[in-house]
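Researcher: Next entry in the queue.
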Amino acid sequence: MKSFLDLAESRKSVRGYDAHRPVPPEILDRVLDAGRLAPSAKNLQPWRFLLVSSPEMLARIRPCYERDWFQQAPHILVVTGNRQVAWVRASDGWNSLETDLAIAMDHLILAAHAEGLATCWICAFDPAMLRETLGLKPSEEVFAITPLGYASADAQTRPKNRKSLNEVVRYL
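Model: Structure for this entry, 172 residues:
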């Protein structure tokens, strides 16, 4: 088993999926459970995870992000949240929804990577189209989506370039 640092370092956004290799349900459940276990402000857990796997629903939501490699994924995970349920800081009204959902999404994609799956965190989707297609309530917001599956043999990734530690840390 990889250490957490190895897992975080080796995870990349994958653009290419094996359309003919669905993920076994027990693996999907472990990935989804990792998202469920994510911390949230005041433990309010203002999220829902929508796992799209049926061919009919995949066909309906794939147009929300028209990239060839996105169309190949056997599963698409949609992370939604409810701003009215999220914690609000009393001093200035700041709402924790995006932070809570980002933590959950990070747990989901790292758990997927630990299981040998590929993901690509996507925010450049058509939210109105997803809202209508998924039949979301007015209070539900789509935060991010990711294809979920095994990488194809010709999957593309980009080099993972990160700033050095001394560029992002200030010791006080």
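Model: Strands lie at 15-17, 47-52, 75-82, 140-148, 151-156.
Researcher: Noted, moving on.
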